[in-house]
Design goal:
It contains three helices and no strands. It is mostly helical. The model has no long low-confidence stretch (mean pLDDT 76).
Length: 98
């Protein structure tokens, strides 16, 4: 994934938007079915990342669809990592305030 946001190409943008769409769909579905299903939601998103990682043959040149799926998985992974880090920080902050 490129770090310079001014240089993101259309394929990267599409992959990232697909990741955000997938996360929003998972969040809303989870909220509609069972408000207390946070762990299932996280597992579902982690499975989305695992399914995409290594799904293609490493000897083949990736097609546009596979590349977009890779971008989507990367974005979901980054979002999950950031959410976990924020949750950990908030937990530490709350415990320090006690």
């Amino acid at each position: 994934m490129q770090t310079d946001n001014s240089m993101i190409d259309g394929q990267s943008i599409e992959g990232r938007l697909n990741a955000h769409r997938e996360i929003l769909i998972c969040l809303l579905t989870s909220a509609l079915l069972r408000p207390d299903s946070t762990l299932e939601l996280l597992r579902s998103l982690e499975e989305e990342v695992l399914i995409r990682d290594g799904a293609e043959d490493p000897g083949l040149t990736p097609s546009a669809g596979i590349a977009r799926a890779g971008e989507k998985s990367d974005e979901i992974r980054q979002i999950l990592d950031t959410a976990r880090a924020r949750a950990d920080a908030l937990t530490r902050q709350a415990q320090a305030g006690r």
